[in-house]
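Q: Second attempt. The first request was missing the SMILES, so the protein and adenosine-5'-triphosphate are both included now.
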Amino acid sequence: MLKVKNFSKSYNNHTIVAVENLEIPEGIHWFKGINGSGKSTFFRSVAGIIPFDGEISWNNLDIRKDAVDYRMQVNMSEADPLYPDYLSGYDLLTFIAEAKKADASQLKQLTEVLGVDVYWKSAIGTYSSGMLKKISLLSSFLGKPSLIMLDEPLITIDNRSVQIVYELVKEYAEKQGVSFLLSSHQDFRFEKLAIKNMYLVQNQTITQL
Ligand SMILES: Nc1ncnc2c1ncn2[C@@H]1O[C@H](COP(=O)(O)OP(=O)(O)OP(=O)(O)O)[C@@H](O)[C@H]1O
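A: Got both inputs this time. The predicted holo structure:
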């Protein structure tokens, strides 16, 4: 269970998202909202990437008090990932795999499934947006997370990769009990997945649909 209490995130004294009380059970959930509504801001807060006011815990691990354990359990893929151009996908993914204590076989299997092994030794600066997106998506599966947030996972990747992402989400959810928060500003993007709840990010808050 993800528990969010008295949450608020502001930029330049302007509230982007505020949530008094939100409890999200395990399962696959879909966050909708128009451009700029605050989906990425909320996901980044839950991932522990940006500071915020309030309390967030996942399966009773507090994002601040249990900072390391929490971050071993909660992974995220950014909507528009940004990495240093001079690193290779290999440099980045082997680093993340080590930090997340991933089995060597997991990294190998994911690179092969997503076709990242073909280009991951080249510098990131040479990648197309879809190639970069696949590195970011792959990174979020590494280790033994119990919650994975995928921010706009289907943008920029080709149709075949979209199917692979659907399969990976299904496999990790069904076989390993991983929960997912998926975001999309478009309707009918995740119809192939067993979506438990849908949430709307709108008017500086989040409501369950
Ligand atoms: N680092 C930042 N500094 C200032 N304002 C920011 C920052 N990051 C986001 N914002 C603002 O917060 C609001 C929400 O942005 P966010 O990226 O969370 O929206 P989103 O719902 O993910 O949008 P999209 O669907 O376009 O990805 C926007 O008005 C944006 O300009």
